[in-house]
């Protein structure tokens, strides 16, 4: 079994509106999977179901072949605007996460993490005074402290300067190289094309297409933008020129 997270026929409605319609796809171990779709396609709802924050009406999500309810500690989710307790310093926030999750890292181990995330100059500042890129690195550090095997990122890769972006990308690559998996929802097609290993397209709550090897997709120098639009056209979905 080379996959970690498996969505099997998952459906979800809010009131009478069907938001997810029998979606099925797998997230492979050691890979970064981009989750692409227009506004309102159902990406955040899917991620929240995978995190156990929403319950599907039908279908199930398995992690390493076990029900997601049993495996909640293995999955972590960073929403588009992570709430990090503005009045705490970064160090206090990390201490708070460790207390919350019964994790007992030594001072040296925390310091090693701080250096790895390039947060040496920022960790003792109040979170409200950090740049967005540094807040995101802190959120990532807090989320990965407990070594979950699946990381769900909702529009995380946006509003980050190039230096922090380079660092974040290298942290995410290290994370999957250790056999973990990432499902990353994004509207930044360039990031999906150059950084991710596979693609899952969702449109109006249905899975449109799964590309498990991104390198085989763009043989004719086609941009992901063109590919995305042609996919929508083929599905009869809304098109934007
Ligand atoms: N709690 C809720 N109650 C009712 N409708 C909801 C709720 N949460 C989401 N929706 C609706 O479900 C649909 C899918 O929303 P979702 O946030 O999953 O889409 P998305 O693909 O993440 O969109 P975006 O790219 O804009 O973030 C939208 O029409 C949204 O308005």
Automatic annotation (TrEMBL):
Domain annotation ABC transporter: ranges: 5-229
InterPro entries hit by this protein: AAA+_ATPase, ABC_transporter-like_ATP-bd, ABC_Transporter_VariousFunc, P-loop_NTPase
Protein name per UniProt: ABC transporter ATP-binding protein
GO molecular-function terms, A-Z: ATP binding; ATP hydrolysis activity
Key words of the record: ATP-binding, Nucleotide-binding, Transport
Organism encoding this protein: Priestia flexa
Keyword Nucleotide-binding (UniProt): yes
UniProt keyword annotation of Transmembrane helix present: no
């Amino acid at each position: 079994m080379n996959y970690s997270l498996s969505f099997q026929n998952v459906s979800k409605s809010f009131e009478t509106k069907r938001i997810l319609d029998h979606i099925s796809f797998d997230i492979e171990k050691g890979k970064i999977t981009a989750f692409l779709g227009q506004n309102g396609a159902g990406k955040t709802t899917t991620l929240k179901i995978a995190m156990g924050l929403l319950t599907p009406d039908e279908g199930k999500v398995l992690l390493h072949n076990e029900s997601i309810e049993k495996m909640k500690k293995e999955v972590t989710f960073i929403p588009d605007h992570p709430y990090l307790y503005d009045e705490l310093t970064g160090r206090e926030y990390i201490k708070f996460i460790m207390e919350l999750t019964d994790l007992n890292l030594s001072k040296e181990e925390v310091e090693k993490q701080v250096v790895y995330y390039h947060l040496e100059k920022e960790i003792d500042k109040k979170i409200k005074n950090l740049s967005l890129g540094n807040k995101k690195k802190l959120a990532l550090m807090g989320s990965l402290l407990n070594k979950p095997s699946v990381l769900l990122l909702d529009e995380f890769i946006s509003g980050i300067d190039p230096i922090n972006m380079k660092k974040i990308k290298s942290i995410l690559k290290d994370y999957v190289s250790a056999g973990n998996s990432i499902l990353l929802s994004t509207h930044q097609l360039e990031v999906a094309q150059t950084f991710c290993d596979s693609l899952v397209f969702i449109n109006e709550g249905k899975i449109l297409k799964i590309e498990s090897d991104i390198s085989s997709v763009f043989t004719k120098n086609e941009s992901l933008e063109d590919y995305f639009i042609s996919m929508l056209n083929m599905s009869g979905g809304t098109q934007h020129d």
